[in-house]
């Protein structure tokens, strides 16, 4: 019989979600082991632009799918859906299409705003309390436009945000250039979200891992999950490349890999890997002070003291492992339309990662419907860093039997 290492709470996945759940559980007096197939924070938690964005509205806005289908054959489009007969992707797109209407968009926005605002406050508190060195700053974000019609169309979103509890100011081209001299004369206006923030995501993940270990948590890196067994309506053990593990409670926090593992357990959760890209440079001389999204090109720009990053785009192409040069080059090309110095003097890293995208752009949080000791903490889409603090808090409350700070019903896997 194989030797089994038993844990109080066994967390599958060592990204910012798994690490945040681990830390919150440790602070609540529970024991924790994390299993991570690579190194902590090495997947989607690593190369994103590090913006903390309560201002981020749901993706299923009216017209989004039509735009994606129009761009289907355009290799460098901000949103690309690779033609495919994959039934899981077709089913996901069908669900997504059904939500691309004003009623569902507004309903999701109201639910998501509560989660994002709670996490924004909790994240700043967590960083201060744990003394996490991750270049956190109350920076705000700018959504920048070059096209007057696009800018005017986005006014509806700017009006919606205050109703959801967020400040959003509209700036003219002259006003935003005065605020950000890095922007060139082509910019016609911007929306300014002062409640947003930024951090260096790889540093944040590394700091979370540090405090998890300091609090007594165990992190098994290079630990590939090879099988998972159930018995009597519970997960009995997990077989890995480093031996067998078991937990009184098991948390599935595998990001874009979650549906593959869930399928082994007889669970079907509609998550698709949404591939994003980034390029990290040394800082240009005229780097933006404020993180920004260059809206027509969907390029995110973030500068830290330690570097400068262009990122974003969304590609639905399955678990494609290629570093697509066309899509990478589109980041610098898009930035050049808005910025005096769009790139830094030296490329430090070219990166891609898969975001765990749900059709309704809400995470999956709560107990699995058919396995008594399995908790799901996945499907955070583009907002894993933004939602990490509240996810950790809510999952720790659930796992310790406390009343949840927010109603978990909108995030249940049963909604699918």
Average pLDDT works out at 94
Task: Tell me what the CATH architecture of the largest domain is.
Answer: 2-Layer Sandwich
Please count the beta strands (DSSP E, at least 2 residues each).
19
Topology order in helix (H) and strand (E) letters: EHEEHEHHEHHEHEEHEEEEHEEEEHEEEH
Could you tell me the strand content as a percent range?
A: 25-35%
What global shape is seen?
globular
Main structural class:
alpha/beta
Number of helices: 11
Q: What would you give as the CATH superfamily of the largest domain?
A: D-Amino Acid Oxidase, subunit A, domain 2
Give the class-level CATH name of the largest domain. Alpha Beta
Q: What about the largest sheet?
A: 9 strands, mixed
Tally of structural domains = 2
Task: Write down the CATH topology of the largest domain.
Answer: D-Amino Acid Oxidase, Chain A, domain 2
Low-confidence stretches: none
Topology diagram in text:
Layout: E1 4-12, H1 16-27, E2 32-35, E3 51-52, H2 64-70, E4 79-81, H3 87-99, H4 102-130, E5 141-145, H5 148-153, H6 155-163, E6 169-172, H7 173-179, E7 189-193, E8 197-198, H8 201-214, E9 218-220, E10 225-231, E11 234-240, E12 243-252, H9 258-264, E13 272-281, E14 292-294, E15 299-304, E16 307-316, H10 325-336, E17 347-357, E18 364-367, E19 374-378, H11 388-399
Parallel strand pairs: 1-2, 1-12, 2-9, 4-16, 5-14, 12-19
Antiparallel strand pairs: 3-8, 5-7, 6-7, 10-11, 11-12, 13-16, 13-17, 14-15, 15-16, 18-19
Helix pairs in contact: 1-8, 1-11, 4-11
């Amino acid at each position: 019989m194989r030797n089994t290492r038993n844990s109080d709470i066994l967390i599958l996945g060592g990204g910012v979600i798994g690490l945040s759940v681990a830390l919150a559980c440790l602070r609540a007096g529970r024991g924790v082991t994390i299993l991570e197939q690579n190194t902590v924070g090495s997947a989607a938690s690593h190369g994103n632009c590090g913006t903390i964005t309560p201002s981020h509205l749901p993706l299923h806005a009216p017209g989004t799918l039509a735009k994606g289908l129009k761009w289907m054959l355009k290799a460098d489009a901000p949103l690309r859906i690779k033609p495919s007969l994959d039934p899981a992707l077709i089913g996901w797109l069908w669900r997504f299409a059904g939500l691309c209407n004003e009623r569902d968009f507004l309903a999701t926005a109201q639910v998501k705003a509560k989660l994002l605002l709670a996490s924004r406050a909790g994240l700043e508190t967590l960083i201060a309390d744990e003394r996490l060195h991750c270049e956190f700053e109350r920076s705000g974000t700018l959504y920048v436009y070059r096209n007057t019609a696009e800018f005017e169309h986005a006014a509806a979103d700017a009006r919606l945000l205050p109703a959801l509890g967020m400040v959003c100011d509209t700036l003219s081209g002259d006003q935003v250039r005065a605020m950000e001299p890095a922007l060139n004369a082509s910019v016609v206006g911007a929306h300014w979200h002062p409640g947003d923030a930024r951090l260096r995501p790889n540093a944040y993940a590394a700091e979370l891992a540090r405090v998890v270990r300091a609090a007594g948590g165990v992190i098994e890196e290079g630990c590939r999950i090879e099988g998972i067994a159930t018995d009597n309506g519970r997960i009995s053990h997990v077989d890995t490349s480093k031996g067998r593990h078991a937990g009184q409670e098991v948390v599935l926090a595998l990001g874009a890999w979650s549906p593959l593992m869930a399928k082994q357990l007889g669970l079907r959760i509609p998550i698709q890997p949404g591939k994003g890209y980034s390029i990290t440079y040394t800082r240009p001389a005229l780097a933006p002070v404020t993180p920004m999204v260059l809206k027509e090109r969907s390029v995110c720009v973030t500068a830290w003291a330690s570097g400068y990053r262009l990122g974003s785009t969304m590609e639905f192409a399955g678990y494609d492992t290629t570093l697509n040069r066309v899509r990478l080059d589109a980041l610098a090309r898009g930035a050049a339309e808005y910025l005096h110095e769009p790139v830094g003097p030296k490329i430090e890293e070219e990166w891609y990662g898969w975001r765990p995208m749900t059709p309704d752009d809400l995470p999956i949080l709560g107990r699995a419907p058919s396995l008594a000791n399995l908790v799901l903490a996945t499907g955070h889409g583009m907002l894993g860093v933004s939602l990490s603090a509240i996810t950790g808090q809510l999952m720790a409350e659930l796992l310790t039997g406390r009343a949840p700070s927010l109603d978990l019903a909108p995030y249940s896997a049963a909604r699918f």
